[in-house]
Amino acid sequence: MDEVIVTNWERTDKNNDYLDDSWAKLYPDQVAAARKLAEKGQLYDAWLVLATNYCRFRAMDSTAVFINLDGEIILEGEGEVIEKPHKKCFEA
């Protein structure tokens, strides 16, 4: 199934739990890259959602991800339930 990236272009807080040392033990390279972008203010909160779910539902399962300005996924987190519509919604 195809997925879409959904974001409000909110910058990721430098103290985000996914950027802490416990997550870095699991994904050292990804967390290091994410930390570097977060320090520059260039890391954004986003979610991966199945395209069919995004078209059909107001609330849906998603995977938390962190993206750069080009919409590339830098770090993938855990599952979350999100609602739509999002203000300033961007679908990549």
In words, what does this structure look like?
This protein is of the alpha+beta class. It has one domain (3-91). Helix content is 27%, strand content 37%. It has 3 helices and 5 strands; from the N terminus they run βααβαβββ. The protein has a 5-stranded antiparallel beta sheet. The chain is elongated. 22% of the residues are buried. The model has no long low-confidence stretch (mean pLDDT 86).
Largest sheet: 5 strands, antiparallel
Order of helices and strands: EHHEHEEE
Major β-sheet strand ordering: 4-3-2-1-5
Structural class estimated from helices and strands: alpha+beta
**Percentage of residues in helical conformation:** 25-40%
State the low-pLDDT regions, or none. Answer: none
Span between N and C termini?
A: 15 Å
How confident is the prediction overall: mean pLDDT?
86
Oligomer: single chain
What share of the residues does DSSP label as strand, in percent? 35-45%
Count of all domains: 1
Count of separate DSSP helical elements: 3
Report the strand count.
Answer: 5
Radius of gyration: 13 Å
Give the overall form: elongated
Short structural description:
By secondary structure, the protein is of the alpha+beta class. It has helices spanning 21-26, 28-40, 51-56, and strands spanning 3-7, 44-50, 59-67, 73-83, 90-91. It has one domain (3-91).
Question: Which features does this protein show?
Answer:
92 residues; alpha+beta; 5-stranded antiparallel sheet; 5 strands; elongated
